[in-house]
Every structure is written in structure tokens, then in C-alpha cells.
Amino acid sequence: MAEENAKSPSLSPREPSEPVSEPVSVQVESPQASVAAGSSIEAATRSELISRARSFLSSPQIQSQDIFAKRRFLVDKGLNETEIELLLRELPPQLPRVPPRTYPQPPPSGLLTLLIGFAKIFTWIAGGSATLLFLYHRFLLPRILRTAESRKSLKIHQVSLLKKLNASLKSLKETQTQCYALLPRPDPHKEPSVFAGCHSLLDVLTEAETHKLEINELPHLTLLRCAWEDFRKLPDCADSNPRTEELFQVLESRIPWLVSAEGVPFERNLWEVLSTTSVFNGLTSQDSPGEVSAPVRWAYVPPKPAIPTPFLSSLESLSSTVTTYQPQSTSSPYQYTLQAMSEFTGYISSNLYTPYRPPPLPGTTAPSMGEPADELKKEIRALKGLVLNRRSFMPTIPRVSIPSSQVP
């Protein structure tokens, strides 16, 4: 505002540039005349001040200033609010102040750079993909194809080998079936030789204690046969066959373990053997009703001894011959020489690692440790003589005489 005050015209009632009025002769007047004269002077001063304020507000330098600064300046110069409002209303409406055009220049567009970058990226991707495809088709693909072909050929070879193996196994099975037809079949109802001579359950239990066997390890067929024989040893039962209940009563009376919870499964196995084996035949009891078709009494039929087949007889004879065969010892003429050489080699190896002993000093008696050397010399002489004797007494080898005419 100091600059505005310096530039704006002064609104004081009297400026230095104004001419000073000449002195007026003072005349004595009445008080009413002096009051009227003072009011007229003040009115002239106010009108002059208002006109200066109007010219101040209408100047182009002041029009762009803030209205609050203008109001403050006019108040400082002595104008009241009413006069200031009238002066401000007289002013033409001002347009809004447009800021100076000092905006920064917009940066240049980066679209071209962006497009060039994208083009470079796509070029790199395309080039890398082409390089990878070239390397794949040039190096990797041939190896993969060779590996696949090798695997396929290996698989075909393995399948062919498996087919050959199956065919050979099938032929081997057929050959075995044809060869094994001559061999005797094992008897499923053959009793062990240990219990074959038992004819009662007491004998079976005695053999079981001798061989330290449990009840569940005893053969079922032996127990059933011995129980059948024990039943026939009872009075009035010599010629009768036992029923199933009677046979198992005899077993339970001799072996109370069958009644326990652990013996029930074993007793069930006994029943299965009794009903399936061929040495026990089920007979229908005569005192049972005719409509009952189930066997009630069991008869024991001893199995017939198997007749040995010619093949089995030949095998038995071959086995007996092999067991009784004793090879004849044949003496070789070089056996003594071989034995002497082996003993000589052992003697040399035993004396090879003996500690070294210096020879005796002159004038001293030779120690007794020199005897092994003498013995070694004797052994060498004996061996040399033996070799010479063998050579002189060896049979002469006949040689073919070649005529001199055929000698080149």
C-alpha cells in the first residue's frame, strides 16, 4: 500500500502544488454567518475529497487492486462508510482477474517411446522363441526321438522275451506233466511211520510224549483209526462198527482236551477227515429208518499197498547202487614224484622266512643251527637223483622217421 500511496494522487485537502490563495481581509461578522461559512467550506472540502477519491478509484493502477485494500485506504483518508459504498457502486463492474499465462509447458508425449519399447520387447520375445525352437529342433528333438525309439525297441524286445519265456514255461509244464505221469502219486492218507505201528490211543499218546508233540500236532487219520480199534476192543463191540457219536466219545474219553474250547476246532477237523477220507466208509445202520440216507456207522478199510511202477523200481535200484558204489583208487606212476615235490615246496616255504644268522667266525666251532642247510643240500641231491632216475627209466616215445628226401 505504500507504493499505491506513492503512485496514487493525494487526497489531502490541500496539496503543496496548489496555489496559495491570497489573504482575504477579515471582516467581523455575526456568529450565524460564521457557522454558515464553516459548513460551506467543509462541504466544499468533502466534495473535493470525494472527487479525488473517485479519480483515485477510476485510475487503471488502482482498479486491479483488492477491494478491501481500497476500502482501508479510503477510510484512512477520512471518508466514511456511506461515501465509500457510493463510490464503489459508481465504479464499473470489474471482470474476474485472469491469472497470467505462466503455466509450465506440458512434457512431450511418450507414446512413441512406449511403442518403440513394446516393439523391442516383442522383437526380443520373437527372437528368443525362434532361437529356442531352433535349438529344440536342432539338438533336443533328435535325442528325444532316438530315446523314444530306443524305449519302443526295448519294450518290443522285452515283450518278445516274455512271450518266449511264457512259451518255454508252457512247454516245460507240458513236459513235466508227461514225465510226472510215470511217477507215483503221494498217498494223502498215508500215516507217518512213527504212528503206523500204534493200535490204540494210549500208544499214540505215548509216542507223542516220546517225541514231545502236542495233541493238535498228531495226525488225524491215526487218531481216528486208533479210536475205531479201541471201540472194537470194547465188550460186545468186536464185530460192530461205531457210530459217529460213539467214535467221538471214545476220543473224548481218552483225550479230554477235545472237550475244551481249544479242542473244538481240532474235533471239527477230525470230523472233516472222517467224512472225506477214503479209508473210512459210511454205512447205513440197519436199525435206522429207511428214509434216512446219511451214513450212521463207519467202517475202516486199510489201504492196499501200492505196487511200485517200473520207473520207481529202476530209481530204487539206481539209488541203492549209488550208495553202495566205492570208486577204485588208481595209483599213478607220478604220484610219488608229485608228493615229494609238494613236500619239498613246503619245506622251502617254511625255511624261507627264518631269521638271518651270520656265518661263524674263523677259529670258532660251527653252531648247531647249520644243520638245516645240510639237510636242504641233501634233499636237493636226493631230488636231483630222483629226477634223473625217472628220466632214465621213462619209456621211450616212438618217433616217426622222416626220409631225408622229404627234408627241405
From TrEMBL:
Residues 1-40 are annotated as: Disordered. It holds the Pfam family Pex14_N. InterPro entries: PEX14, Pex14_N, WH-like_DNA-bd_sf. One of its GO terms (cellular component) is peroxisomal membrane. Keywords: Membrane, Peroxisome, Protein transport, Translocation, Transmembrane, Transmembrane helix, Transport. Residues 8-31 have a biased composition (Low complexity). It is found in: Peroxisome membrane. PANTHER family: PEROXISOMAL MEMBRANE PROTEIN PEX14. This is Peroxisomal membrane protein PEX14.
